[in-house]
Design brief:
Oligomer: single chain
Helix content: 40-55%
Strand content: 15-25%
Number of domains: 1
Distance between the termini: 24 Å
Strand order of the largest sheet: 2-1-3-4-5-6
Order of helices and strands: EHEHHEHEHEE
Low-confidence stretches: none
CATH architecture: 3-Layer(aba) Sandwich
Length: 117
């Protein structure tokens, strides 16, 4: 699966996904500091799911109606980076098809996805 990881994502998550065979572009490695609209555009250009911990992408998608190829919002504050990496890798592995074009939220207790109407 192709994934663009926003710079708000821990490196351990990126490393775990890459080790699992996913093609991950990490914004922190390539274009640190770019704005959210550009990050979203990069994920669309690559037909990739956007992985982020930044709630502002909800604003871009639901209020500004910007197009995307799927977003996974990671809300795992308080967990150590390795635990976050395990949970994210599991969610991506189990829900890869559902993530396409939906807006998903991953917490310690739940995975929710909102499909486009």
């Amino acid at each position: 699966m192709r994934i663009v990881a926003d710079e708000s994502i821990d490196r351990q998550i990126v490393d775990r996904l890459r080790a699992g065979g996913h093609a991950v572009v990490f914004i922190a490695e390539l274009e640190p500091g770019i704005d959210d609209e550009t990050v979203l555009a990069r994920s669309r250009e690559q037909d990739a799911i956007l992985l982020t911990a930044d709630k502002d992408f909800g604003e871009l998608v639901f209020r500004q109606h910007l197009l995307h190829c799927g977003i996974l919002l990671v809300r795992l504050a308080g967990l150590d980076p390795d635990a976050k990496a395990r949970l994210v890798a599991s969610a991506v592995g189990h829900h890869s098809e559902a993530l396409r074009l939906g807006f998903a939220v991953l917490t310690q207790r739940a995975f929710r996805i909102r499909k486009p109407v």
